[in-house]
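Lecture 7 notes: from sequence to structure.

We start with a single chain of 270 residues. Read the sequence below before looking at the structure.
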Amino acid sequence: MKSKVIRTLAIAENTIRESLRNRIVYALLGTTALVMCLSLVLGWVTVEAEDKLRIVANLCLSAIVLFGTIASIFLGTNLIYQEVQQRTIYTLLARPLSRGEFIAGKYLGLIAVNGICLLATGSFFLVFFMLNGGEITLTLVEALYMTFIELSVVTGIALLFSVVAHPIEGAVFAFVVTMVGHSTGDLITLGEEIVAREKGEVGLFTTLTLKLLDLLYIVLPNLSNFNLRTEAAANLAVPTSFLGQSTLYAMVYMLILYLLASWSFSRKML
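Now the structure, written as tokens:
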């Protein structure tokens, strides 16, 4: 067991080094910081200082999520492909290293990279927000924490598609699933509206549609569970139970993504 952990951590450490050498990561970090600074432009058009700070906080947190998502998908969908192209994966798998350990190491390494990048952008945001008259509140820190959890789930999605598809296709699929994941809660509302429009007995087609919507709601990630940007911008308190439930949901979903990626990779011909 100890040797498995050591091998997994070694893969994770190598993944961190490889990812942090990628110039795209630094380009996205710089773009995030630039968007944060430009958020003041929209803040200036408001009359009230409170509204200005709310706009700045919302835009900065949204920029962190957006460019963090792009970085997670880009890195996640390219890592396995690069290992195969450079043929380093054959050397790694020739050692006493299982494919499950390889995927686990890659996943942990990418999560660590997310943490490092979020620490950089989050620190910049908090300092930037404070210098412009804002107050660092617990809700802001909680919003950044939930952003890290969200990006960890997105990374798992990207890693799964990196195993089952070509990097370009995988990136497109991962991006689509991530975008839909922000509107997963609307699937239930859509189902209720369909039933309301029937105004009578529900037919077979409608029943199948509702079943499909329920299935999509269960299978697709509900990324809105991690969105605290509105609450953070308005300085609204967030129940501790919500943070705990959202974290637990993310951990279960991440475990499922890992198991699917590991199973798919074990069946992949290399």
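The CA atoms of residues 180 and 220 lie 8 Å apart. Keep this in mind for problem set 3.
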